[in-house]
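Open question from group meeting: does this chain pack into something compact, or does most of it stay loose? Before anyone orders reagents, we agreed to write out a predicted structure and look at it together. Recording both the input and the output here so the notebook holds the full record.
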Amino acid sequence: MPTLNRREYIRTRARREYDLVTDETDEEQIDFHLRYAETQLESIHVQVRILIIHVSTSFAHSAVMKEEHAIFCHFQADHLTELDKVHAVW
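Structure tokens returned:
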């Protein structure tokens, strides 16, 4: 996840770049900046998809680990109960 400083840096940089070209009248330059913006937006979409996959995988892994832990604890409790019975007989 981006830090607050990183988000502020990106926001400031984007605003500065936007302000530099708001008065542009050359059609070729406008087309260039639009293509550049589309490329940047596509990059952001890819990064978001990767982040979503990472987060969902982390949550899924966490859920599996919790389930495995619960099963282990249940098995361990059953096992200790059986050992206690064996020790009681001795």
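Observations to bring back to the group:
Helices lie at 4-21, 27-89.
Residues 86-90 have pLDDT under 50 and may be disordered.
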